[in-house]
Specification:
Lipocalin-like domain-containing protein, eleven-stranded antiparallel sheet, single chain, mainly beta, 142 residues
């Protein structure tokens, strides 16, 4: 098996350190927990959140390979597939598609000490408005 990816673990959303572009966005969280696991097939991710309007939200990917190819994304009506490419051991860039159209992209970066996960995502919504976020997550021990 490959080396354990530094993203593997449980991450808790930190609203005070997160920023949104043209909020509210469909991804504006009140609270959120990201969980990443890894097996021989790749990395699986899930997010369970409460959105700013109080509604529950969950999405993720199963057996993601960081290979620049598009893989299915579940739970989000705005995104069908995502492709990840590795920049270095702690950073990936990604693009998201709805159908055949790229709608946005961003980065997933882990601090050198492995304690902070920062997700950025910039996209154009159905009305042509550029929206996005820089969300901050703290690693949970255990």
């Amino acid at each position: 098996m490959k080396a354990i990816d530094p993203v593997v673990g449980v991450w808790e959303y930190n609203s005070e350190k997160s920023k949104y572009i043209n909020p509210p966005t469909p991804f504006t969280y009140k609270s959120a927990t990201r969980t990443y696991t890894q097996d021989s097939e790749g990395i699986s991710s899930s997010i369970k959140a409460i959105l700013a309007d109080g509604s529950p939200f969950s999405e993720g990917m199963t057996s993601l390979k960081i290979d620049g190819k598009y893989h299915p994304h579940w739970g989000n009506s705005f995104i069908d597939t995502m492709a990840y490419e590795r920049v270095d051991t702690h950073t990936c860039v990604y693009t998201a598609k709805k159908g055949d159209k790229v709608i946005g992209g961003g980065t997933r970066a882990i601090s050198p000490d492995g304690k902070v996960l920062r997700m950025t995502f910039i996209y154009t919504d159905a009305e042509g408005i550029v929206r996005g976020h820089v969300t901050h997550y703290d690693r949970q021990e255990g």
